[in-house]
Amino acid sequence: MRLAYLLNSYPMTSTTFIRREIAAIERAGVPVKRFAVRHWAERLVDPQDMSERNRTEYLLTGQGGRLIGGLARHALFHPRGFAEALEATGEMHRAAGGGFVRHSAYLTQAVRLKRRCVQLGIDHVHAHFSTNAAAVAMLCRRLGGPRYSFTVHGPNELEQLAENSVADKVRDAAFVVAISDYCRNRLIAELPADLADRVKVVPCGIELSDYPVTPNPMSGRFLSVGRLCPEKGQAEIPAAIAAVARDHPGLSIVLIGDGESRAAVEREIGATGTGGRVKLIGWRSNAEVRRRIGETRALVLPSHAEGLPIAIMEAFAMGRPVITTPVAGIPELVDQSCGWLVPPGDADALAAAIGAAMTATKGMLGKMGREGRKRVAARHDLAGIAPRLIALFESAAD
Q: How far is Cα 261 from Cα 268, in angstroms, rounded to an integer?
């Protein structure tokens, strides 16, 4: 089987889990051709991501007028497939309520993808996220290209299933992956009943061997990892830290990541006088994230909307409990035996959980950490996830 992965922007610092998934599949004996629509606009910080960019072929970046020429040739020499793809493009445009240029771009990218798949003998294309990349994969299939599948993560894509023509994408796909039971249930609630069996639950994962368990340092240092955005609630952290620091002067937290909420977090740091306790350090390499997890007492992620955060898996793998919220797929991994679940947006509950982590004994934190590690090993180790994905890809190819 010849397999390709298709992403919108790749590699990205916030989606290293996709790079790891591809690497695990290749270690299991299946080479993967990387396709992406475009370069990520921001600076990469991890050497492995920098290397991955050199292994990725881009459908849009650097192509210029070649895409238009390819579109015209395909319309001329393959009129039937082109007509089917053109009809699907129009249907997506109407469902989205606009975006003619964007949907036309999907079609031009699909033409190039189909040509390259034919040249390389690709049997199956897998996309991550049900949005742009899945649209290109579907149109490529309508043009006569290989079978495809895609992974749905959430949270935002689960709120726009109709606008993104997800039912049409599922109907044309060989199968669809949902990263959690919550994600699958949300999907099948909106899909026609005859498509429910097409949605398979396969979680995202980590390379467990990359995350050794280390003793909890019992310090006052906490950590938060993820894109700075309203959905992840990082702007609520400074006030919680300020409240707990009255009784625990050694308390501090580092926020790894960047994004549209950076200014809001900085304003809250200023308003709460926590500039010496709350540090924003931007994106960091995987190696530095692991090092900082090892230095921390617990991970803090007060999300309002999520899929199932990789940062929680990483913290659990190293034996660290987490403070987070019971949204989306998080309760499938986290409960009171390995962390603290607080209502999203509840500042008092967030502060109370941080305070509870500060007063927890070494024995209690160690027990919670061991339970977290156990759960990640059972559910999210890529050594077990990669064969499940390969089996699905091979079944689709057959």
A: 11
